[in-house]
Write a structure and sequence with these properties.
Blueprint lengths: L10 H13 L4 H10 L6 H22 L6 E11 L2 E10 L4 E7 L4 H15 L4 E3 L4 H16 L7 E3 L6 H14 L8 H18 L10 H8 L2
Helix pairs in contact: 1-3, 1-7, 2-3, 3-7, 4-5, 6-7
Protein name: IS6 family transposase
Pfam families: DDE_Tnp_IS240
Keywords: DNA recombination, DNA-binding, Transposition
Amino acid sequence: MIRFKGSHYPKPVILYAVFFYVRYAVSYRDLEEIMAERGVDVDHATLNRWVVKYAPLVAAEAQKRKSPTWRSWRMDETYIKVKGQWCYLYRAIDKHGQTLDFMLSERRDEAAATAFFARTIKGNGWPDKVVIDKSGANMAGLDNMNIGLILAGWYWLIEVLQVKYLNNIIEQDHRFIKRMTRPMLGFKAFHSAAATLAGIETAHMIRKGQLSTGGKTAFQQFVALAG
């Protein structure tokens, strides 16, 4: 359960603001006006603090509660501007488009790819197959995962495919994330970028039905994650 102790606003108000920001392409000043129209006087700086604080916590709960995923993966990166510099949002989905995991990185190299695959495997189990682009760094990251399997005495390895058309599904999946981040015109800090993207990815998971229970609306599902 996510704690809201000490907040000067009710939990539903905070969650409504966070959900609205990570689900719809609005600026913080736009959201400030939207909240005012609903009778809530809150400035854009406070709204930013709410997103940075609570979006990652809700995202962590979503990872715990999402429906089971398939063992055939698609992995790719997309670009996100932070402090005027391009960073890399590593993303993985299964063959049916269900989100596995995501990770913002300042670098696109073997170390980053290895960290992402280790994180995704920890949360979703070992894949049978992973489809990637022609990136040597991503191939090296998967090679490191397979080396780990060999050292552990396993008799099977992850099958790695570098076939562009098979990865179209994740390139299409990037579009929702890019559509949400485009009006934000870049992030001023890495930690706030990572937090906001975690919220956007969670809203996207809800939109794809990965957390659907009992006919709840998208917002109701988001609130349920907060406990």
